[in-house]
Write a structure and sequence with these properties.
Structural class: mainly alpha
CATH superfamily of the largest domain: MFS general substrate transporter like domains
Radius of gyration: 24 Å
Largest sheet: 2 strands, antiparallel
Helix content: over 70%
Shape: globular
Strand order of the largest sheet: 1-2
Order of helices and strands: EHHHHHHHHHHHHHHHHHHHHHHE
Oligomer: single chain
Number of strands: 2
Number of helices: 22
Number of domains: 3
Amino acid sequence: MSQSTSTTAPDPSGDAAPAPSAPPAGRGAALHHPPLQGGKLVLGTLALSLATFMNVLDTSIANVSLTAISGDLGVSPNQGTWVITSFAVANAISVPLTGWLTQRIGQVRLFTASVLLFVLSSWLCGLAPSIEALIAFRVLQGAVAGPMIPLSQTLLLSSYPSNKAGTALGMWSMTTLVAPVVGPLLGGWITDHISWPWIFYINVPVGIIAAGLIWSLYRKRESVTRQSPIDAVGLVLLVLWVGTMQIMLDKGKELDWFSSGLIVGLAVVSVVSFVFFLVWELTEEHPVVDIRLFAGRNFTLGTVTLSLGYGLFFGNVVLLPLWLQQTMGYTATQAGMALAPVGALAILLTPFVGRNLHKFDLRALATISFLVFALVLWMRAQFNTQADFGTIMIPTIVQGGALAFFFIPLVTLALSGIGPDRIAGASGLSNFVRITAGAVGTSISTTLWDDRAAMHHAHLVESITNGNSTVNMTLAGLRAQGLSTEQAMAQINRLIDQQAMTMSATDVFWISSLLFVAMTALIWFAKPAAPPAGGGAGGGAH
């Protein structure tokens, strides 16, 4: 479940605040248009939901198709994860630019353009003849998708009366929770029964319909525009340090990390540009990212725990279907079915959490989420090569409960005590850090899986000697089936590979479980303040 979504921080009375979290809801939205009514309201909600659904769906639909994409394009599945990380990094970088672009272009024009460009880039992804081309088009897709999530919320809120803001956001949130359920199922079915390019082609008709409806309904409800300055130096430094860091993480496992001059060079460039980025943003009058927000304890702890948790969650979400398909022999459809239930409990519990958020300590809700995540990953750490479909699915169902208590409390905590004039910047910065953490988490989890698998394979091979009775019996049994000695040894090696990859996957699950437990202590250093009236929050599921 990969793309940013947004929720609004409830006020102490328990009613959802009407102001959106998106940057565009600030200075670029000076005009106040009357709410839509009747059929126009229904169509507007449908169109915005379609666009949001398409965006969020695209982040989860590719997870179960990585093996097929990698095989078709002639690269390893680990290299295929670039399809996920390239989108996430580009998307993270483009999120902070939403406010500036809205002020210059306008909410409606920018949103419509983003949807149409998303359609174009999706079509190009389907046509990609190589992994390099696919990654380039996914970067484009992630970049143009940045404004879609915050602006969809902004436009939806403008369509409803202020006293119906909670209802509007609830409907919007359901869309972002349903998409991760449908994504794995649809992606698996399309990959197995048609071909993987169609996971991108399906965005074309959906996006065109959504863009057409949105333009026809909202073009006369445009926001005020003005020529606002852009922090060009900060933007270049942001792209430089994030991009080089991600390339270093993705290429490191192929090039033996810091034994490679390229990896060393990328690391140096990333660190140096990051330091310059921090210094520049702290002194810039109009920073692309307001670093000063980290001076607030709640924002720092809320954002850090949200990002760490999301990185762990998303890394494991990508790892699980890879393990199922490479090791357990699952098809893409079967892997999708194993992942789909993740949204079931989230859909049921999220409305309850949102309505009753003011009644509970945010830190307690976040703790529940972390402990449930830890339980889920501990359950997965018990997997073996004999695990059946039900055993694999049960932790996924339970994980939905963790998601319901994860995003809303942590985002609300991060934004508690921040003034209304800084909510937009805080939401954008929190989203940027979270999405970047998701991409980094994917790279680290797959790298760790690969490295631990090689280690376990070496240890298992050490036990295979001519004097090992189990090995001799296995060889004798395989020869009795008509296999030659070479074929029998190849079969044993495949079994060792399967065992090593499973042991490695459970190692990653176990480590992730321990980290979630550790995060329960970190969150209690925060001291929640009452959410600002009219404040919003940006969070969501990929």
